[in-house]
Design a protein that fits this description.
The protein is α/β, with parallel strands linked by helices. The protein has helices at residues 36-39, 48-53, 78-91, 105-115, 132-152, 154-167; strands at residues 3-6, 9-16, 21-25, 57-61, 97-102, 120-126. It folds into 2 domains: 3-126, Rossmann fold (3-Layer(aba) Sandwich); 132-198, no CATH class. The longest helix is centred in the middle third of the chain and has 21 residues, at 132-152.
């Protein structure tokens, strides 16, 4: 799989097919990988990478902090994610593309179109994530994570994740709020939170359980 260095980070990407460029922004939060187009939700039965490559030059990639792409501890934003997509197109010598987002990738796609209208042929938003319940649940999960980090320190939180990853027990309980096993970001003031609260640690999505986590 080819890689590109963008903003000092290695980006794992693929291109497929020929025709007008189509930038595909993967579903998922901090697990937004190319693989999601094959394995997640409605897309696993649609085979979009293969189907769309019949008419377009498909460009897909593991977003930063996801899959085989690199990452670092810093404040994240939709604009930062959109910039990565734009620079990947520049790396490939592509000036303008159709932009497709799936699930949370719709937020990145919207930011891309708003920030780079000259590079956007059209915007396709498939299955946008959101709604007040999603936001409330996400805020609650972050609040629990933040309290644990504040009370126990970043070292205890990160060491627990490291132990779980190494032992292959990432889906079992680890230090920190129940089911919070993914990287996170927040829009709260950077000065009021521990350093790890703005970091990006771990790669896997929590197990789905409607009563315990996620929804």
């Amino acid at each position: 799989m080819p890689t590109a260095t963008i903003d000092g980070l290695e980006v794992n990407y693929m291109t497929r097919g020929s025709g007008p460029a189509l930038l595909m922004l993967a579903p998922g939060g901090f697990d937004a990988t190319m693989e999601k187009w094959k394995t997640a939700g409605v897309w696993k039965s649609m085979h979009p990478l293969d189907a769309l490559a019949a008419s377009f030059q498909v460009i897909a990639y593991d977003r930063r902090e996801s899959g085989s792409s690199g990452g670092r501890i810093e404040r994240l934003s939709w604009a930062l994610f959109a910039e990565q997509g734009r620079k990947l197109l520049e790396h490939l010598g592509i000036d303008k593309a159709f932009v497709l987002g799936g699930c949370m990738g719709c937020s990145v796609a919207t930011a891309f179109a708003a920030r780079y209208p000259e590079a956007t042929h059209a915007l396709i938003l498939h299955w946008p994530v959101g709604g007040y319940r999603w936001k409330m649940n996400a805020s609650d999960r972050f609040a629990r994570h933040f309290r644990f980090a504040k009370e126990n320190g970043c070292r205890e939180w990160s060491s627990g994740l490291t132990r779980a990853n190494r032992s292959g027990r990432i889906r079992k309980p680890v230090p920190g709020p129940r089911c919070f096993r993914r990287r996170t970001r927040t829009d709260t003031s950077a000065s009021s939170r521990p350093a790890c609260a703005a970091s990006s640690i771990g790669r896997r999505r929590p197990a789905r359980s409607p009563k315990r986590c996620w929804r």
